[in-house]
Design brief:
302 residues, mainly beta, six-stranded antiparallel sheet, globular
Length: 302
């Protein structure tokens, strides 16, 4: 049976707050002649809402300050899920950052700072929206064959971790992360590793170099018409706990951070190791069997 299509619900906080939701620390809606926005009233704002079931929750927003670069730190409760600095004096692309949340009441907060201090220039917050995706994806650990388990990054409570990317996003069909550093590192817990894979896409020409323990194991080139799918055997690297993917943007528009990462996953062998007591028992059984056979075949003396 095919998995159900995800249902995406968007709550637009630019002009109104739905019943049961609480928005604090932001002004009433203002209009600049083109778009609505709100103004932070202090160095912190928040939105509180209740989920009836576990879901993926994504926040979208854009900050503008005419005189100072402004950094937003986005938290769910006490957990930081994203941080970004918006340049001064220009409208930069919207930020989207999400995380998996259980059923219950949650508070998402934005903390605003300008060069590490409270902002003194005016800050405007545009495009404030909360998007929920239901249902959440499959479990982070999946049995995919005899003694084979797949660990998936883009799932709640995943044992995998990633560095060099932005927060998790949803494009309407799949979960993805924007590459923010030239090197992206995918890491996993200890185990009997089989392989690792992911998918990299960029709307321009790019090159992906994959390394395990400093050794180049895969080099591929992609374009806006063809993504890259490094699939790496890890059986040669039993001590490895991570791989590194280097993304070089070869187009002229963007020289770094041009790509997106989809579907990071690692497969492990779950076969239970044969322990010393088991081996000892098997050897004893063999010896006893040989002894019994010898007694049976020994000549009878009269």
């Amino acid at each position: 049976m095919a998995a159900p299509e995800p249902t995406v619900t968007t709550v637009d906080l630019r002009t109104e707050v739905p019943a049961g939701w609480t928005l604090a620390g932001l002004s009433e809606p203002k209009f600049d002649g083109v778009n609505y926005y709100r103004v932070p009233q202090a160095d912190l704002s928040s939105v509180t809402f209740t989920l009836d079931a576990a879901q993926f929750v994504e926040l979208e927003y854009q900050l503008y300050s005419p005189a100072q670069p402004v950094t937003a730190t986005l938290r769910v409760g006490d957990q930081v899920i994203h941080q970004r600095t918006f340049a001064a004096g220009r409208f930069e692309p919207n930020e989207r950052a999400g995380t998996f949340l259980p059923a219950g009441t949650h508070t998402v907060s934005w903390e605003y700072q300008c060069e590490g201090k409270p902002c003194t220039a005016a800050v405007s917050q545009y495009w404030t929206q909360v998007r929920t995706v239901n249902p959440t994806p499959a479990q982070a650990r999946q049995m995919v064959g005899l003694h084979t388990e797949r660990m998936v990054l883009n799932a709640p409570d995943s044992p995998l971790a990633i560095k060099g990317t932005g927060a998790l996003q949803f494009d309407g069909l799949n979960f993805l992360r924007r590459v923010t550093d030239q090197d992206v590192q995918l890491s996993w817990p200890e185990g009997k590793l089989l392989n690792a894979s992911l998918y990299v896409y960029a709307p321009q020409s790019f090159r992906v170099t994959t390394r395990v323990q400093g050794q180049v194991v895969d080099v591929q080139q992609g374009s806006k018409l063809k993504g890259v799918s490094p699939a790496v055997s890890l059986t040669r690297f039993p001590e490895a706990r991570s791989l590194t993917v280097t993304v070089d943007c070869l187009g002229t528009a963007v020289t770094q951070g041009c790509a997106y990462v989809y579907f990071p996953q690692v497969s492990v062998d779950t076969t239970a190791p044969v322990t010393v007591p088991v081996l000892g028992g098997a050897a004893l059984a063999v010896v006893m069997g040989v002894a019994a056979l010898w007694r049976l075949l020994a000549p009878v003396r009269v």
